[in-house]
Amino acid sequence: MRLRADAREQVKDSIMNTNNTNTNNTNTNITRTTGAAAPGAVTTPRTPYHELGHGSGPRVPAWARHRSVYRSAGRTLYLVETDRIDAARRDLDELEGRGWDVRIEPAGGTTASIALSRAAA
Fold first, then answer.
1. Which residue has the higher pLDDT, 34 or 2?
2. Which of these, 25, 93, 103, 109, could form a disulfide with 99 (CB 3.0-4.6 Å)?
C-alpha cells in the first residue's frame, strides 16, 4: 500500500505549516537545554521510534510498512504507511500521550497514512 505522491505532499504540507497545540507533554525522558550543550553531554533522541523503545533503543513496529522523514525549521514530520491500523492503535495512543501530534488518514479498510510530529526542543 502506497499513498499517492500528491496526497503524501498534502499531508506533509499540512503538518509542517501547523503549530503544535498539544501542551500535554508527559515525556520526561528528554533533556532540554538552553544555549550550547556542555561538552560530552548526552541527549535522548527525539524520534517516535526511540519513544516506543522505552530507553532500550529505537523500536520500529511491525505495522510501520513505509516510513519517510521530513525536516524543517523547528519541526520534524514522520510519515508512516500501514496496512494494519488496528495493530498500530496502542502505539499511536502511547505516542500521543507523550506529546506527539498523531494524525491518521484512512486509506480504506485497514490501511492508513499516519503523520507524527512535534515541535523541536
1. 2
2. 25
